[in-house]
Amino acid sequence: MTLPAPVALGAPLPSPTPSQELLTRLAVRRSAPAQGLAAPGPDAAQITDILTLAARSPDHGKLTPWRFVVLGPVTRAEIAEKLAAMAVAKGLPSKATAVLAKLTAAPTTVLVVSTARPASKPVWEQELSAGAVCMNLEHAAGAYGFASSWITDWYSFDAEAVALFGVAADEKVAGFIHIGTPVEPLLERDRPDTAALTTTLP
Predict the structure, then answer these.
(1) pTM of the complete model
(2) Which residues are bridge partners to 38 per DSSP?
(3) What is the tens place of the pLDDT at every residue in 154-168?
(4) What b-and-e string marks burial along 172-195, b requiring 16 or more CB atoms within 10 Å of the CB?
(5) Which of 172, 159, 162, 56 is nearest to 112 (CA)?
């Protein structure tokens, strides 16, 4: 599969058309357990396409308040080893080490970094844009036939830990998006009652 040719800047975009395939994909979408993702994962060309699609997310003011870090298995294994030692040094519970299996299992991980800055648009809107990028990244991975898992764990919020991933002090981890092939079928889970969560105003 390949992406369609880019539309020229300022040219009209195609109008949306009904798509049963997209409706079905959205209706059955679910996250995979991160530690249950194995090879194959996306190749370099597919990752480029997935990031291109993820970047087509709402971005009020065209600030691009996010960036990507593609983490291969070698880098993740090295960082996980350092995180394990860090968890012990900080006296964290044993679960802090156990969750590192989520970080190392998948063949590919994309770290989405929120780079929101006080500007003409609210920081909250910029952070929401980073979240939208994470979701679009998952949808794009699904379009290529892969499963994904959007994860944050203790090391996403620890200043010393995020520095290992090259995240600056004024940045935040929006999510680690682990991508691969599930080793077992994904099972449906309970879903929200949207009627109970919806208010309709005249």
Answers:
(1) 0.95
(2) 181
(3) 999 999 999 999 999
(4) bbbbbbbbbbeeeeeeeeeeeeee
(5) 172
